[in-house]
Design brief:
The chain is an alpha/beta fold. The chain has 14 helices and 13 strands. Helix 6 (157-167) runs antiparallel to helix 14 (379-390), helix 7 runs antiparallel to helix 13 and helix 13 (361-375) runs antiparallel to helix 14 (379-390).
Length: 396
């Protein structure tokens, strides 16, 4: 077997964690990769998909004999150092991805860990630094949108944009790429969404409703949540760290006091705050004060317990603070809250599939430095900075 493993046949790797979300990415690479996948892939469009231009996407199904295992999207490409690679995008979850991996292994592929795959693929495929960073992050992608974005960058979207810039440095285009960083990093670094409010306003019930299953104990006794619990969920394609905190109330008990202080700290560092209010009673002065303190932040006021009747007058709340009325117990109004949270996240519309997206701090710092050099008229230095972003890790 050669150093890159291609002489012993293809290798297969599940690049995304099993059961991580709506999509799983399996890569088969090495001599005979396309032939192996062809044994199980049935494209919707008739013809030899392996003979078409590398890089095209093909929709179809993976089959085992006459049984359909899963619908997939397949991309075929060549490695710079010989051999070939096939990317198979299937449904996330243990069953579908596991069955496809089993078929590929039965067909003669060696199973590789994500870590070993990154090392070998970076060398064998001649990946530049940006594409290597995308490949390294694919195993931890938590949503379908994140995996799609990383696959686009693995296939050269950002690398090609930076290479074009190096040939013809342009400050406006550099700034366009810098703006994409908010979108890219939000897909890989979960935004913290904290549920704050007084005890017994329904924070834990709302937390469970958003998570989709019961993770915390819900009780009608005030103060049940003494510290805080969190869960990462997918919301609008973004990973979101949802945090349920203790009630914001004064107490002399050391355990309760710890939970209150933890809640305040979570509220301070949260990217988005959801202030949960009991809409079945009048608002209390400290709740109104808390709402006004959040007026200049990404925050939402929730009037909960709509199933018990709406008695709260929202007039004292800041006029520009988004609000919604819901019942966490019945689910009424939950979609409206999710829409409000999504509105506070970066919008994906400017970045359709295939768009170049900045997704690491190293990339952002290099592009920001290039923009400053261009502003200072140092075009050659900016060009060197841009080329440095692409330099393979082994050459850095």
């Amino acid at each position: 077997m050669t150093a890159n493993g291609t002489s012993s046949g293809p290798a297969a790797c599940l690049l995304t964690p099993a059961a991580s979300g709506g999509i799983a990415v399996i890569e088969v690479r090495g001599t005979g990769a396309a032939a192996l996948v062809s044994r199980f892939f049935r494209p919707r469009r008739k013809g030899d998909w392996t003979a078409d231009t590398p890089g095209h996407l093909y929709y179809g199904h993976i089959v085992d004999g006459g049984e359909r295992i899963d619908e997939v999207i397949v991309r075929h490409r060549s490695s710079r150092m010989g051999g070939e690679a096939v990317e198979v995008n299937c449904h996330g979850g243990v069953v579908a991805a596991g069955e496809i991996m089993r078929l590929f292994e039965q067909g003669g592929a060696r199973e590789m860990s994500a870590e070993a795959f990154v090392r070998e693929a970076s060398r064998d495929m001649g990946l530049d630094a940006v594409r290597t960073e995308a490949l390294e992050r694919l195993p931890s992608a938590q949503t379908k949108l994140a995996a799609r974005m990383l696959c686009d960058q693995l296939n050269g979207a950002l690398s090609q944009a930076v290479a074009r810039l190096a040939e013809n440095p342009n400050r406006s285009t550099v700034n366009d790429l810098l703006r994409s960083a908010e979108f890219g990093r939000a897909l890989l670094e979960p935004r913290c969404v904290a549920l704050l409010g007084r005890p017994n306003v329904g924070k834990s019930t709302l937390f469970n409703a958003l998570v989709g299953h019961h993770r915390t104990i819900v009780s009608a006794t005030p103060g049940t949540t003494r510290d805080y619990v969190d869960e990462t969920i997918a919301l609008g394609g973004y990973p979101v760290e949802l945090i349920d905190t203790a009630g914001l109330w004064q107490t002399d008990g050391p355990v309760e006091a710890r939970g209150v202080e933890a809640a305040r700290e979570v509220g301070r560092r949260a990217g988005i705050v959801v202030l949960v209010l009991d809409g079945s009673r009048s608002l209390l002065p400290d709740e109104v004060r808390a709402a006004h303190e959040l007026a200049d932040r990404d925050a939402i006021a929730v009037l909960n317990k709509a199933d018990l009747g709406s008695k709260a007058d929202p007039a004292p709340l800041p006029a520009d603070l988004p609000r919604c009325t819901l019942s966490a117990s019945t689910g009424e109004g939950l979609k409206e809250l999710e829409a409000e949270i999504r509105r506070l996240l970066p919008q994906p519309d400017p970045y359709p599939p295939g768009s170049p997206v900045v997704f690491t701090g190293r990339q952002y710092s290099g592009l920001d430095r290039a923009a400053k050099l261009l502003e200072a008229g140092q075009t050659d230095s900016a060009r060197d900075m841009l080329l440095g972003l692409l330099r393979p890790p082994s050459e850095s």
